[in-house]
Amino acid sequence: MVEKNSGKVGPIILLGPPGAGKGTQAKRIAEHYGIPQVSTGDLLRENIARGTALGRQAKEVMDRGELVSDDVVNEMVRERLGEEDCRRGFILDGYPRTPVQAGWLDGFLESKRAKGRAQCGPLIVIEMDVDYNNLIERLTGRLYCAHCGRIYNVITQPPRVDQLCDFDGTPLVARSDDRREVIAERLKAYEQQTRPLADYYAKQGQLVHVNADLDVDAVTSQVLRVIERSRGADMKSPSWSA
Ligand code: AMP
């Protein structure tokens, strides 16, 4: 059994449409293994909140539900993955999202390995399959805590106290791109630009599917099983019961 808080983990990629639950699962996996969640959406929103030039540029694109340019996102990822906390591994949430980004990531990881600085084990790509109607319900009911980033849903994952984060009591907010017209654009961008990545990773024998229609704990159980299997260990005592 590989200890959950030591040794290398991943890198792990969570693939799936907006609303599949990538952010929720990435946070749980990150906490479980003590590795960082690297969410390009969160990094972009941080830039917007700080009012950086990158943030100002990205906001317009994000508010239309389109994808930010590959160069900008790849550079942001390069910087983030170079940080100390990524040495044992990391979980990518919302990245890569285009074939160009996937190719860039392959090259980046390869160059790390070639330099003997492989920070992590084999790539694990998990595709979260979810029914279209579930996606819409999750996206239109989504609220999040701008302080700690935890994600809720008014129907399926309500906070204990109405509109307040369970962990720090911060008032919850809806994302500006969770409006119906923007959701339609984001799903279109996913179908056209991101879905082909499943084939790309399947051809390399790296893709594993999980059923993301199940409840949050059951999805976490599946994801943990996939990761443990790929780390060469049977999970004898899963933390989340299916
Ligand atoms: P997310 O939080 O992953 O749903 O991302 C929110 C928005 O940020 C997306 O709709 C895109 O506009 C932008 N974004 C996030 N990740 C990427 C990426 N890997 N490539 C391009 N745009 C991205």
Classified in CATH, the superfamily is P-loop containing nucleotide triphosphate hydrolases
Q: Name the hetero compounds present.
A: adenosine monophosphate
Strand content: 5-15%
Rg over C-alpha atoms, rounded to the nearest angstrom? 17 Å
Strand order of the largest sheet: 2-3-1-4-7
Helix/sheet category? alpha/beta
Number of helices: 9
Q: In CATH terms, what is the architecture?
A: 3-Layer(aba) Sandwich
Query: Within the CATH hierarchy, at the fold level, what is the topology?
Result: Rossmann fold
Can you offer a commentary on this structure?
- The protein is of the alpha/beta class.
- It has one domain: P-loop containing nucleotide triphosphate hydrolases (Rossmann fold, 3-Layer(aba) Sandwich), CATH 3.40.50.300.
- Helices cover 45% and strands 13% of the residues.
- The protein has 9 helices and 7 strands, in the order E-H-E-H-H-H-E-H-E-H-E-E-H-H-E-H.
- The strands form 2 sheets. Strands 2-3-1-4-7 form a 5-stranded parallel beta sheet, sandwiched between helices.
- Helix 1 crosses helix 9 and helix 4 packs parallel to helix 5.
- The C terminus is likely disordered.
- The structure holds adenosine monophosphate.
- The site of adenosine monophosphate has 17 residues, from helix 2 and helix 3.
